[in-house]
Write a structure and sequence with these properties.
The chain has 71 residues and is α+β, with helices and mostly antiparallel strands. A four-stranded antiparallel beta sheet has the order 1-2-3-4.
């Protein structure tokens, strides 16, 4: 199974269990992680999602600002 450690809950996105978290995967450096999370008993299970470095998150932020400002 996946080895991960959630270091910080940043935000819940919508009402479907999607969460933005800071996660260290496989003992590597922590990154921003946006995905569906579900609880099974006491365990948190990751679903499909994306993991972003700070630089990638900054690029995404700028792209979203551009997109949303054009609406």
């Amino acid at each position: 199974m996946y080895e991960f450690k959630v270091l910080q809950d940043v935000a819940e996105i919508g009402t479907t269990g999607k969460g933005l978290k800071v996660v260290a995967w496989g003992g590597r450096a922590a990154k921003l992680d946006l995905r569906q999370w579900r609880k099974e008993g006491d365990e948190l299970k990751p679903g499909k999602g994306i993991t972003l470095s700070d630089e990638e998150a900054q690029d995404l932020l700028e792209a979203l600002r551009d997109y949303l400002c054009r609406k």
